[in-house]
């Protein structure tokens, strides 16, 4: 109901203004004789659709309604001479500066596009970091070394790791799955745990408790595999953002370097 009312108001306002004033071509509406250009509405529509909204007649009616209201308030502010207020002037100057900064940065990015070959070269440099291993491990976490040693004895006697994890582990998140931690890089764990895990042969467990800030762990390594990093296509978008950001930073640094600053 609210959207429908706004749409009716927008149409009514447009009908009133166009019947009284001869609106120039490319004019969305006129308010007290002042034309609102259609290009302003198109800019708003472009920004909104870039954020995921659909370009619909209803959206256009809402944008028109808002622009008319903005113009009414703007004219009222001018009548009150608010533009002469020192604080308002400072805010207007700051806003103008932000807009021009954004325009300059956008112009630089447009004039200096990152090519696919440059992206590929950067990807080839960083993909060597993907060549690591992932470990599928499980653990049992207990508060004391004595309890951990007792569990190791039970495991060596043939008791099942997953059953002991369910019964005794303080890590309830993994305990319900028999202590399973899933696939992970050892660097994702605290140093003591990760180092002990990386040193284990596949299928083996630690023969001594591993102490960390959380308590004492018995760790078992179930499997090892090569870690698969993102493909070029998967990494392309993020790489583009990173490289553009670096190019912009270099551009700004160069401008500052050339500027005379006292």
Explain what this protein looks like in three dimensions.
The chain folds into three domains: 2-80, no CATH class; 116-127 and 230-258, no CATH class; 132-226, Chitinase A, domain 3 (Roll), CATH 3.10.50. Helix content is 58%, strand content 15%. The protein has helices spanning 2-20, 38-50, 57-79, 86-111, 116-126, 145-156, 161-168, 172-175, 191-199, 232-258; strands at 27-31, 34-37, 133-142, 180-184, 210-212, 215-226. The strands form two sheets. The chain has a four-stranded antiparallel sheet with strand order 4-3-6-5, sandwiched between helices. α5 crosses α10 (232-258). It is elongated. The model is unreliable at 1-24 (pLDDT under 50).
User: What is the CATH class designation of the largest domain?
Assistant: Alpha Beta
Rg: 32 Å
Shape descriptor reads elongated
User: What's the number of extended β-strand segments?
Assistant: 6
Spatial gap, N to C terminus: 60 Å
CATH topology of the largest domain: Chitinase A, domain 3
Mind summarizing the main beta sheet?
4 strands, antiparallel
Low-confidence stretches: 1-24
Helix share, percent:
55-70%
Question: How many helices?
Answer: 10
DSSP strand (E) fraction? 5-15%
Number of domains: 3
**Which H/E pattern describes the elements?**
HEEHHHHEHHHEHEEH
What structural class is derived from the secondary structure elements?
alpha+beta
State the strand order across the main sheet: 4-3-6-5
Q: Roughly what is the average pLDDT, rounded to an integer? A: 88
Supply the CATH architecture of the largest domain.
Roll
